[in-house]
Amino acid sequence: METLFLYIVKSSGLIALFYIAYHFLLRKETFFTANRWYLLAGLFTSLILPWIVFTTIVWVEPTPANFDWSRLPMRPAQKESFEINWYLVLAIAYTIGIALFLVQFALDFYNLNRVLKSKTPHQQADHKFIDLKENIAPFSYFNTIVYNSSLYSKAEMESILEHEKVHSEQYHTIDVLITRFFCILFWFNPFMWLYKKAILQNLEFIADCEASKNISDKKAYQLTLLKITAHENGVVLTNHFYQSLIKKRIVMLNKNQSKKSNSWKYVLILPALIAFVFLFQMEVIAKEKNVTPKAAQAASEDVDIYKITKNTTETELKEKAATISKNYGVSVLFSNTKRNADNELTAITVELKKGNEISNNRNVNSSEAIKPFGIVITKDSNGKLNINFIEEDDKSIDKVVSTSKIVAPNAPIPADTQIYINEKKSEKAAMDALDPNEIATVNVIKNDEKKEIRIITKDYHKIGDMDEIYINGKKVSQNELDQLDQGSIDRIDVTNNFGKKGMRITTKNGTYYQEKNMPVPPAPPTPPVMKFKHPVPPVMPKAPRAPKGDPIHGDKKAWKEFEKQMDEFDAKMKKIEPQMEAFDKQMAEFDKQMEPFNKEMEVFNEKMKVFDKQMEEYTSKIEKEKK
Question: What is the rounded CA–CA span in Å between residue 201 and residue 285?
């Protein structure tokens, strides 16, 4: 569930990033078609990119496979307190929101379907036309165009149909449905609703621009826009001829085409996406080096090798079993021995056992004499036992190859110890059956002279899921934690406060190990902080409202007054042109301040190339050391 919420947060952040870039850089440009694909690409990138994770493998020293339960640190037990599962609460609220918006979508689709089926459409070329009697604003849905011809003159209908044909021919309904789908998924994100508004607004700009090319009188087209504002009854899930942004549409109709050189602004989103990937989509995977038994034995204080050859007698086998049992408490049973005519061993079974804690066996059965092998028992400075079966190498008797490994605890666990595995009470046998390599954390708690052992396995909880990690009081990253030598750990405390998980680790010597030779990746540059306030566009004059009816059959005096008001409106629009130019200059200053950041990104990319080369050399070196 945490993964799902993290994905939703990342997607919401990307949606906000694309919208902010559009609002400040592209909203005033007349690249309407390019803006359409930019906005759609932003939505799908926000949906897909959080799922893409780039991994880097770092080789670290192997985690000790043995645990001395009696030597683990103890701390007073903390009383369990009631905690609200906020993830569950948020999941319920999120699901309820989606359900409500899905119901609204179904109702809107039902109302649209009822309108489309109310009358038989008239087919003309690739379009279907439906002429209704209801007072409803003209709209298009895929290749169907709906209108009320009785409300408009012939010239006005020509403008309306040209506009709606653009919506239909360019499949703008798909954009509307995609936007509605994202609004359902991200209903809680205010940027998503602003994003939807920006997409619908841009679709109207496209339709206005294309329709005006086929209409000789652009002023008549603007008059039609203003007249349609009186008909505010629209159908959702469609492209309306009327939208509540008439002033912006008229401004964009009269605005000069943007210079092609301004298209470089689309590239500015790439540094932000690169920074997002390096900050949130890079995962470092730590893999353990392979350590040969010879290296393991070198790190131990005591090493005993009990060699068995084809000439070992039954008496010698009994003596070896007795010696191992006396010195280490490990039971050794030799059975199923067979010998050839020369009294050489050809078959033998060896069983090793220490109480109920560990067991292993080795079975050799051949028609020829057995090859020499042995039992190697090592004892480290903490008193832990490592028992290995080894085979003699053909080249040298000193070189051995490990075939299996047993770990024996140094001290028994008290009978009254309570054991919990993955927060469930378990028996000692279940703990003994655990693979030490699969254990993530272990806590030993002493309470009223009773001991508790709490074990969390890697498949139940990952240390990397911690919100905060501290080693010796210093906050560290996941990469530093992966490189910590777990043999140096003295104490681990795991906390969970209101859903925020933390881990505090104390080492035996107060320091922690970190590979010094591993390359450090460069940090991406930080976007600049603007030195000026957000540019404010000039106040647009209020457009006059068209009178009822049409200029021929309506109130001629009112229409004459309306034309006079339109002339005044055009004059006001020309008057604010200097202010619009000033606003464009402020935006140019913004672009200028972004230039140093772009140069820093170029330097960063070069450093990343060097880092990649260093990582290849480092990985190659580690591979050679393993061999």
Answer: 45
